[in-house]
Amino acid sequence: METKLERIADKSAHEPKPEFTSLYHLINKELLMQCHRELGGSKAVGIDEVTKKEYGENLEQNIEGLVERLKRKSYKPQPSLRVYIPKSNGKQYKLLKERMEKFGLELEESKSRMLESGGYLAKSKQKRGESTRLETFDFLGFTFYCGQTRKGTAWMMPKTSSKKFRQKRKDIKVWLYANRDQKLKKLMGMLNLKLTGHYRYYGVSFNGRMISNFKQQVREMLFKVLNRRSNRESYTREGFIEMLKYYPLVMPKIYVSLF
What is the pLDDT of residue 86? Predict the structure, then answer.
């Protein structure tokens, strides 16, 4: 048994991309008995709250049943038990902070919070006939919320956050006024590069409406800016539409699929 495990360890250590099609043939009663002996008795219990001592009171029968379920591939591990660390002020962090520190990372507590969200939770609520409305959160310029696909499946969806949308709109407006006296061909070329950059970042599944809205608002700002250029002929609405036929704004596009 140890020889087989040693071969697996050696293969994992020396081959860049080792492939293991199945490990079921290595799992037997002797292996699991040894694992139980080596398991520390002070370890936290799982979600079933069964301690090592309690499991060991009927060890052979428990192990034999486990091996049989593994061989039939009917064994389903239970979820991990979530553990909270009590704080002096009565609140609880999670072990996440300690785990992040192991990798040289730091949790910014003032910008972190616990919330009920996620597709799994939404699907469970959906099955129970409950509302799938969950808390939203912002991350990297997106607001994540629980919506529904065209098939009616609950799904975590991103959209451009309101804060970032306003900021990007303001940035484009400032840039347009700063460059309004550029030749039209050059101005439109630079503007389209900026729009393409916006689409490449925010063009993800479920965010089509927001990037289309952004393009529409840029279009309206462009119309106003072109009519405030010094010593240049103003555009009527019809003239502006005709101009866009020669120098069209780049169309929104979904660049990243989340499926």
Answer: 52
